[in-house]
Amino acid sequence: MVFGLLTGNLAILFLFVVSLLLLAIWSYSLMNTVSAKLSAFLEQVTVARNQALQNGIKPSPALARANMANLSTLNGKGPDVQYVSDGSFFVETDYRKEIPFRIYSPNPADKLPVILHLHGGGHMCGDLDIYDAISRRMANCTNSVVITLDYRLAPEHPYPAAIEDCKFLLSHYQSLLGSVGFKDELIVAGDSAGAALTATLSATAQFSPQISKQILLYPSLDYTMKYSSMDAYGSGYLLEKQGVAWYFDNYLQNVEDRKQVSPLYMPAPESMPETLMMVANCDPLQDEAYAYAEKLRKAGVSVQLSVFEGMVHGFLLLNTLVEEECEAAYELMNQFINS
Q1: Which residues constitute the domain of residue 24?
Q2: Are 25 and 106 members of one domain?
Q3: Which of 41, 131, 160, 213 has the greatest number of CB atoms lying within 10 Å of its CB?
């Protein structure tokens, strides 16, 4: 009798374990496959991360910024642009803070569309030089004036400092352009955290002229981190879930309501600009991007969603590894702006 019960329980346990294994195999089969162009690189990143953990190296802003600068070497050198000029403006905080910006124009005598380019980096990293090659390619490929901004970074300057810097640029970009030709067609573009800033501006800001279009590249849109892709692709795909949480903790230091400040959950008024979204399908942030695209469509906003198969978060910084995909991304921007 007892033996029979034990045998029955073991059989049930065995079936349960087999079911879990089958579920795991089925779930794995649904995972997107990373491009072979990135496999060796991602393996090197994993080895380096594991070595850092074994050596007891803890994350820090300085280390994160150095790592991003090192990563950007894979971007290669950007093309020559006819006009490149650095400038700055000042914002008043606890003290007077200088905010650098850089202007690129393929033809400063022509009246061209204006792209305000907001860089990524988890709200903690990135600068004008790291994104110089991307800004150059963006200017030449779209035949547009590009202004990129060295907005204030966390943890030294937490939320909403970066947004305030971006709002200042939006309100004053025409005077900052000086003698550079431009027309009243304003596009705001950002990748990752820069896309979060872009989407926030599009949802909350009113300017003259209005933002006509927004471009979001592998955007960060949900500070609650609730979507399943955050777990499915949260390890081994360059951007790690643990790292995302650390970035957000450094950015949102004042007990902000994370849902309320997430672009995904902000109202989507009819005045929202026409939107181009580019999503990497091996990115932990991809599900929130799909949700945002659906939300805008339901609100009547024109949305173009392009999914890059086998790409990881931040692939535009990996131009030397995935040049064809990067060229496709810039061409999508060109068609979106100039069609």
Answers
A1: 2-30
A2: no
A3: 131
